[in-house]
Amino acid sequence: MLLTGEKVLKQNKVDTGMPMTPIRHSKEQTYVVTHDLGERIENLQLLGLKTPGASDPFFLEFHNKVKDALAVILPEVKIVTYDMKRLVTDVWTEAIRIQRSIKDAIVVSSCAEVASARRGHTIEVNRLVDENGKIIGLGPRPGNPPIGEQTKGVATVANGNPVVLAEDGAFTGGTLEYILGRLESRGVKVAVIVTGICFPDAIENIRRTFSGEIVVVEEIEKPYEWMPDHDFVPFAPNCGRVFGEHFGSETLPCYNHEGISYCFPYVKPYGDPVDWASIPVEHASPFSLMCLLEALKLFKRIDEMNGRRITAIDLAGSMPRVSVPMVMGSRQLPDAEMPITDFLHEACEELA
User: Fold this and answer.
1) For every residue of 193-248, which 3-state class applies, written as one string?
2) Can you spell out the DSSP letters for 258-281?
3) pLDDT digit string, tens, across residues 56-75
4) What is the pTM for the complete model shown?
5) What is the CA radius of gyration of the chain?
6) pLDDT tens-digit profile of 234-254?
7) Domain assignments of the chain as residue spans, ordered by start
8) What residues contact 281, with CB distance under 8 A and at least 6 apart?
9) What's 1-35+74-221's CATH class?
10) Is the N-terminal amide bond of 269 cis, ω within 30° of 0?
């Protein structure tokens, strides 16, 4: 059974106080941009740093610049933005409603915002890539144990009871399929999947291995791309594709001796915005430079607020982790002790 958008609210009479009309574009393809950069930067305050708050005007200005740039770059594509905090609230509302209808069910998610430590159980998973930015498999997000250990923990907590799997979204459904398989191998039964943003291919792929109910908050019929805004900002928590390697049966992030992980942000000169973010090749450098300049502005301000120059080491221990950007094709790991603003300034000069 598949429930989407208005059907979810009408059937279950859930009032979240937010619009829930599903997007159904008959002609235009849709480029989805989700916004959570402000919340991620604000969370760095837990490390004892001073940062702009999530509601700071900088983040709204950045959102608008990205949206306006994409509208110019892709004039035939509909640009749609979502506030992740609101989307996650809708997903969580549905997950809890379903949990209450299934005896002893627990909620599990790979999105920490959906299933935080106080309201669910997480499987911290993301795609890992080699030094050329090529996907080598799914593995834990930096700072988390191998997926095998995480799913073992979920199985222990579930103790034979059903699981409601809640996700912020599904583009191809690959991650959800992977999680379903790993949970099944532990004897965990997923009863219902709740997903925020969802695309048709994802539903088809998930249906290959899952016959239960799927609840969709926002269905995008003609998807073009989906990008979180934090992936465009180097040194933002959870930015970029994480550099990893195979270790035995697991795929794991690579760390330096101080526990710093590495990544390829979705902007040049680090990553590939053409293949990864569907930015036309002729616009890849200007778009990347715009994002880098905004990142530089943000971290200059953070330097000023703290009265010193911040490095990646200062951000170590954040959850989600901050990974140091590296350039595709290079096996040389960058210097994590370099001030972030110097790092970003060099990247801007390379593209200018």
Assistant:
1) EEEEEECHHHHHHHCCCCCCEEEEEEECCCEEEEEEHHHHCCCCCCCCEEEEEEEC
2) T--BEEE-SSTTTS-HHHHH---H
3) 999 999 999 999 999 999 99
4) 0.88
5) 20
6) 999 999 999 999 999 899 999
7) 1-35+74-221
8) 274
9) alpha beta
10) yes
